[in-house]
Structures
1.
Amino acid sequence: MKAKIQLLTSVVFSILLTSCGNRETNNQDNTGTHESGLINDFIIMAYSGPPLEEVTLERYQEVADAGIEYLVPGNGSFNLEQNLKAMDLAQQVGIRIIPVEMRLLPFDWNQDVSIDTAVIKQIARDYKDHPAFGGYFVKDEPDISMYPALKQVADIFHSVDPKNESLNCLFPNYGTLTQFGVEDYGEYITSFIDIVKPGLLAYDSYVLKHDTTLYDDWYSNLSLVRKETQKAGIPYLVFIQSHGVEEGLRLPDRAEILWQANTVLSYGARGVGWLSYWTPEAGLGVPHAEGVPPLIEHYYNGPIDIDGKRTETYDFVREANLYLKRAGKGLLGWDNTDVARYENGKMVGEGSSPVVSPDGEEADIIIGTYRKEGKTRLVISNAGCDKPTSFALHYASGYEPMEVFASIEADPTGQNESLLRWTVRAGGSVIIELKEDQ
């Protein structure tokens, strides 16, 4: 399902990265080759900023206060003048902008349009030196036939601006053959990596449906993308939901907001993107290709509603973002070496947890193992978003818990409240640092 928006929302998400350009291999070390934080930082992003009449310093301070560090404005801001105004304000409040550019739009909506090298180079010149510039948008949810063109556009951007990257945001695994352009989703992902050679891979996943939560799709998507990006030596991020869509997606509550952010962290993602920040009006966006009927979706109760008022969701997203600033950024430079999912105390599917194993029939958790320079941290998240989970932890020989690096909605329980037994409420997570016997 394309739960995002085929309006400008789609256009937006691809914008966020920094240019991979002329990389010869995927496995090279990207650190130091790009100045943009999109490659080297933990990314906290949101789509859909204040509409044109609300593009003010006060409103942009409100964005920053929500813990958002990268904003894709959209929502009426589509040309150079509008985007530069947003960047000037963003610079004052300490965030970055990934602009939606109408000059790239013909490429976005029609895969047969010729690529105008001069236009793409001019876009790079217009934005690349602004201190609040965050990256280039190319394409949201492309099918596999567009991959060679995406690589060509990224290379043109890179020829003018080697510091910043073009981003393409891929479909989730519950899409269709028509959307992928290929039968196998794994091939859809690996072909993108092989052909486009991105510096960062992003994909959408909106699994909080009105009547169900697509747990299997959520976790299998994370597992596959994690595996393939690790092979390629690149980070990945996931766009997750922060508003409702009538007759499609339910409005996430606090636990569901935290669950999305924390399980993504357990699986080693390098960031999140929220859809959306300011709730867009239905149908607000860019013209659709001739002969293609528009996809109109009706959104409600994002962090800022259509009328510009804060909702409960603003507080939930802000809380998650502030936690990620501590937890996600605290794992930069650490390798996510293993991950395992447990249901009722038993491991589900492929995975591994070599340092610790859970015990207890209520153990519905994800254990992500991170390592750095002989140190180990465990990111243990509730695998569900609707109930608490309790469990004991058994550490492998040579390891013992040293301290809690970060936690939210998680408490040690049992005798002396040691770090051996835990209750993690719905959406919660705890990061435990271990001591290794030398």
2.
Amino acid sequence: MKTERITHAFDPVFNSESRILVLGTMPSPKSRELGFYYSHPRNRFWPVLADIFGEEIPKTPEERKNFALRHKIALWDVLKECDIEGASDSSIKNAVPNDLSVILCGADIKAVFTTGTTAAKLYKKFIEPENGIPAIALPSTSPANAKVKFEELVEEYKIILNFVN
């Protein structure tokens, strides 16, 4: 697989009611193709959130955006651009972080979460020194992280409920 220079193409999802910020690394090729965060059909992000909030799994980008906003969740990614091979976070080079101030100034964010080890490392390297806000690292919901069972993801992600209720 060849390395490509990818520039983030999605706007952040948030409004003034958002209380938590969930950051991935960079949208996968499938998410970029489908035009929204965590859109790979085997990614467990939306099923996990639906489970912890006791709702149906949102299917379309519009349903997912509305779901996130209804539950006071802001969504974006740590990186604005990078060199990457496919969806392999471990291949990321020449990373440029997003400027989170647009969200942090537009919403009363109570906690920042990262989805996956690489997002956590990149946040700690590039963003935390700038804003001083530590992130809570959650396991990746990617199909590449199949070793973590759905039930384990649900238990880990329940921490979100402490900040949105």
3.
Amino acid sequence: MTDGYEVARCDQTVYVRVHGLANMKNTPVLDEFLNRESEPGPLVACIDLGSCRGMDSTFMGTLVGHHHRLGKDGGKVVVVNPSPGNRRLLDMLGVSTVLPVIDGLAEVAAQFVTLEAGKAVTPVARAELMKTAHEHLIKLNDDNRSKFGPFLEALEKDLSRLQTD
């Protein structure tokens, strides 16, 4: 499988296997999926990074946002099986301070399907997702504010420009 996601559902838990890179290009399809799946009530989203070669801040910030949103209904996002490099990224940005991270979880015996992209993501929708994701990261700690503050300012300017075009 190329970069992307496989998903399965069992009761109030969705399992997501990340393949390849998890980044701003493919995060919108995951975001849409998690929004859709959490409609019936409390949801646990188990994000398996065992086959993930790398991830960016948009992906991680989106997970934090879903964790906060799901937590309001008694749900959560759990990250499992990160590689040492991905674990370092989760720790470095403070994501692991709010999301449970579990190493060495056994493979889930479920019927997984490839999560296909829905409608094309507009530049405005992608920029809004990136903005929201980075706002979640900035709220985690002051280091993230200094890392992502200038990026967020530039992104907001781009978003304003895109919305007026």
